[in-house]
Recover the amino acids of this structure.
């Protein structure tokens, strides 16, 4: 397959372009997604020019109506891709996602379904503060019927978004703005990556770092630093939180005997709690150290760069947690 | 009397004799369904939860006659009458309410969430106001495919105070989708009187904010409801975009079954019951010579038999098996090992 170096933003754009070309039933809707802007960060650039404004629809600032409209269209066999500009705005639309999209198949035993894709962008590390920076994926992990996807590389972004669009279930697809400029080799032709298949992005023997999204490059940086200290860290990119690839997590942790879970979401009550519990339930007697979690402190996200940097998990904090774990003492703080 | 809020009507569609007969038959079926549920639950014959539509039959009967089978309906938890009007079989409704294996939702959906796409009943929402955006999406789908299908979304007066109502009317106006928004204004939002929840004189006026037509009419009069709904549905079908139709009515059994209705003045309830749309329409059909007494009696006997059969079949039907508790969560349920 022909490959090209491209950014995650270009990979996402290509996935949307190919989906629109593949099926007449695919359409996009959201705020400011049409040209000339093509989305606030340009992910949908060029698509309204190519496919017209009836398939790339600029909408009013009405998140509940955006997602509800997508659900209604999907109920009738269309393949809508809705965009919530920034993940923090999803509160306005959450009723439609939680009470309609996620539950429709179950409540009607498959007579009606709502296989929408909701793309959301997570801003962080940009000084946008408490209501424009949140990683809220944990909220949606608790909603049966929904799938939750967070890519960390251009290759995964294109393959996972293609899977999301044509998947028969509703998918929350989380795009990390800080990663949109990441470059990598991406097949030009259409391909899809199955959900529920984690990716071991770095092999190691002493400790397993379980993470996803922005936690992946941060954890890889930590692992590189730790290598110099003689610590061999394996890094697992979950790619999808629901469904979660538990066999890959458990196989790895059974091998290394130690686990550090890294999320940009809150540490307390966040996705790391579920992953940690999963490991403990299955492997407690095989662990040589308690499972450690690195996550955001339990505060709103501050705006000033010095405070935001102190808030967000970074390679240094991940490395510190790994050192404690390898030293057989679990981290207890943030 | 019909009152147009933002547009004028010159020619009013009137129902044919056959359409008036059908409306009465549907109203009777709706009334007897509610009566039978009240009796069955009240006497302990079976257990179910429901949100009574009794008193609002004229609107759903008119809508049922105006819509085509291929048109789509989005309704609410207080929507059994809407489903009946759209052609959902009484047996399916009773099985859903009693939570049986034979129900469309096989015991998983329940009263609040009945859907029956075979008849075009696409969604009952349990969340006030949440059906409107979904109706806009169904309308967008019809428009994108070039179909002449119309979508009717029904909801109560309370829903018109939600953000979703306003987002949806605006979105529908902007996208010019073939959707008719049907407000069944029963004067109470759950337990709170409409005077306490809005300052506008009529809900139809709210359409002016989105520059779409709005019309208010007597929702206890099936003929008048038919006229205003026909006009709105025709407009949608011919590419004229959405309409807000407000049909004023009353609910006789409160918000949910068992509601003591302490918040409704006795005189108000008595006055509404004195204008019960079902016997009133019967009287009108008799007096105008549309139907003979024996014809009406036959309609009533048929409806009663249909409801009784549906109830007995639902009672006799098997309960769903807990073995299927986790089925239908995803298209491929192997993805859920937990």
């Amino acid at each position: 397959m022909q490959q090209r170096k491209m950014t995650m933003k270009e990979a996402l754009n290509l996935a949307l372009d190919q989906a629109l070309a593949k099926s007449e039933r695919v359409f996009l809707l959201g705020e400011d997604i049409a040209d000339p802007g093509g989305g606030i960060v340009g992910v949908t650039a060029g698509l309204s020019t190519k496919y017209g404004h009836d398939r790339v629809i600029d909408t009013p600032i009405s998140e509940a109506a955006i997602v509800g409209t997508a659900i209604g269209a999907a109920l009738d066999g269309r393949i809508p891709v809705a965009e919530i500009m920034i993940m923090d705005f999803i509160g306005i639309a959450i009723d439609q996602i939680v009470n309609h999209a996620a539950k429709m198949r179950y409540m009607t035993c498959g007579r009606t379904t709502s296989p929408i894709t909701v793309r959301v962008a997570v801003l962080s590390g940009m000084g946008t503060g408490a209501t424009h920076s949140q990683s809220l994926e944990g909220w949606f992990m608790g909603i049966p019927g929904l799938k939750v996807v967070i890519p960390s590389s251009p290759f995964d972004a294109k393959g996972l978004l293609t899977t999301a669009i044509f998947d028969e279930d509703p998918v929350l697809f989380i795009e990390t703005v800080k990663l949109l400029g990441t470059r990598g080799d991406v097949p030009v032709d259409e391909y899809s990556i199955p959900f529920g298949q984690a990716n071991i992005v770095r092999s190691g023997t002493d400790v397993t770092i379980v993470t996803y999204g922005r936690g992946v490059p941060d954890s890889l940086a930590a692992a590189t630093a730790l290598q110099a200290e003689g610590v061999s860290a394996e890094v697992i990119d979950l790619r999808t939180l629901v469904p979660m690839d538990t066999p890959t997590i458990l196989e790895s942790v059974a091998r290394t005997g130690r686990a550090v879970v890294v999320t940009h979401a809150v540490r307390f009550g966040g996705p790391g709690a579920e992953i940690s519990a999963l490991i403990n339930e299955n492997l407690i007697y095989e662990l040589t150290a308690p499972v450690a979690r690195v996550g955001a402190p339990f505060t709103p996200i501050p705006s000033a760069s010095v405070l935001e940097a102190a808030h967000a998990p970074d390679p240094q904090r991940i490395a510190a947690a790994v050192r404690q774990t390898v030293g057989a003492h679990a981290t207890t703080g943030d | 009397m019909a009152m147009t809020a933002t547009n004028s009507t010159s020619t009013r569609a009137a129902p044919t004799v056959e359409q008036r007969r059908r409306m009465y038959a549907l109203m009777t079926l709706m009334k007897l369904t509610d009566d039978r549920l009240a009796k069955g639950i009240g006497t302990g014959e079976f257990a179910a939860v429901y949100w009574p539509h009794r008193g609002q039959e004229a609107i759903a009967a008119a809508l049922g006659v105006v819509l085509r089978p291929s048109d789509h309906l989005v309704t609410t938890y207080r929507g059994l009458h809407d489903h009946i009007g759209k052609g959902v079989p009484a047996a399916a409704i009773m099985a859903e309410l009693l939570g049986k294996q034979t129900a469309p939702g096989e015991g998983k959906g329940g009263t609040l969430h009945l859907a029956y796409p075979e008849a075009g009943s696409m969604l009952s929402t349990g969340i006030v106001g949440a059906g409107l955006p979904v109706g806009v999406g169904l309308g967008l789908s019809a428009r994108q495919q070039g179909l002449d299908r119309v979508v009717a979304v029904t909801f109560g007066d309370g829903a018109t105070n939600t953000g979703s109502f306003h987002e949806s009317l605006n979105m529908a106006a902007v996208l010019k989708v073939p959707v008719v928004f049907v407000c069944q204004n029963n004067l109470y939002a759950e337990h709170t009187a409409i005077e306490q929840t809005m300052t506008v004189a009529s809900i139809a006026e709210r359409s002016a904010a989105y520059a779409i037509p709005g019309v208010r009419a007597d929702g206890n009069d099936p003929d008048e409801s038919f006229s205003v709904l026909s006009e709105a549905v025709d407009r949608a079908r011919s590419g004229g975009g959405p309409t807000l139709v407000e049909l004023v009515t009353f609910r006789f059994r409160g918000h949910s079954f068992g509601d003591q209705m302490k918040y409704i003045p006795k005189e108000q309830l008595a006055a509404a019951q004195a204008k019960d749309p079902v016997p009133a329409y019967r009287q009108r059909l008799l007096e105008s010579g549309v139907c003979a007494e024996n014809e009406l009696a036959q309609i009533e006997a048929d409806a009663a038999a249909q409801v009784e059969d549906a109830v007995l079949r639902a009672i006799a039907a098997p309960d769903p098996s807990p073995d299927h508790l986790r089925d239908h969560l995803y298209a491929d349920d192997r993805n859920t090992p937990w």
Q: What stands out?
A: Chain A has a mean pLDDT of 96. Chain A touches chain B through 49 residues (CB under 8 Å). The first helix of chain A runs from residue 8 to 22.
